[in-house]
Amino acid sequence: MLARAIAAGGSTIRDYRTPDGVEGGFQNAFSVYGKAGEPCPACGGTLVSVKVAGRTSTFCPRCQK
Fold it and tell me: Are both 52 and 22 inside the same structural domain?
């Protein structure tokens, strides 16, 4: 996964850019990031988000028991 992210230039969520100003493209491969309330791509259940140590985590409660 790390190799795929590096090959895609990283992830541009808000303002990340490479030193030459190019946005990363790996965020386009995210399955659930920022998609709370939408259907899980694996099972169709509803994705939820929770705060963990001050960070938001999105997951499917059916797939991740």
Answer: no
Secondary structure E strands in the chain: 48-52, 55-59
Burial tier of 47 (Cβ tally within 10 Å: 0-12, 13-18, 19+)? buried
Residue 26: φ, ψ to 5°: -70, -20
Q: Are residues 26 and 41 in the same domain?
A: no
CA 60 to chain CA centroid, nearest Å: 13
Q: For the segment 14-51, what is each residue's pLDDT rounded down to a tens digit?
A: 777 778 888 888 888 888 988 999 999 999 999 999 99
Q: Is the pLDDT higher at 27 or at 60?
A: 60
Number of compact structural domains in the chain:
2
